[in-house]
Write a structure and sequence with these properties.
The chain is an all-alpha fold. The chain has 4 helices and 2 strands, in the order H-H-E-E-H-H. The chain has a two-stranded antiparallel sheet with strand order 1-2.
């Protein structure tokens, strides 16, 4: 290859790189301008929110209409729907929740029929509240 051809190739490459750099810089400027616009709109929304909180509600009907229009405006930034932020839910332990069970007291009478009636009531309560097998005996002993 001749030196003249090499210089031509280098000049073309430099020209292509400078064109790409110019494109990149204009894209960055456009993005920064859009970001600044969104930031300004967000500040306005926050200021409106603070102003509406500080004012007393005059009547339910007028304040609900005002809040509806405010919600419509605050949810639209650059004409795109912005859903309201959600609270993070606390993780609950898996498995059924333990229920407090109130059992009828058994006073130790010597009558067998009263014991059988008491036992049937207790079994019905255990079935109704879905009490685990491990909890049945300690709960039943507490009612004696």
């Amino acid at each position: 290859m001749k030196v003249k051809d090499l210089l031509k190739k280098i000049a073309q490459d430099v020209q292509a790189l400078s064109y790409r750099q110019l494109q990149h810089e204009t894209l960055l400027k456009e993005r920064d301008a859009q970001f600044a616009l969104i930031k300004d709109k967000w500040k306005m929304v926050k200021e409106r929110d603070e102003n509406t909180k500080s004012k007393k509600k005059s009547s339910h009907a007028s304040s609900s209409r005002r809040n509806e229009s405010f919600k419509e405006q605050s949810l639209r930034i650059n004409e795109y729907y912005q859903p309201s932020p959600r609270r993070a839910r606390k993780e609950r332990p898996e498995g059924p929740k333990e229920v407090r069970v109130e059992l009828p007291h058994f006073y130790g009478k010597e009558n067998v029929e009263t014991y059988i009636d008491w036992e049937m009531k207790v079994e019905q309560l255990f079935a109704c509240h879905r009490v685990s097998e491990e909890r049945k005996v300690p709960l039943a002993t507490l009612s004696f």
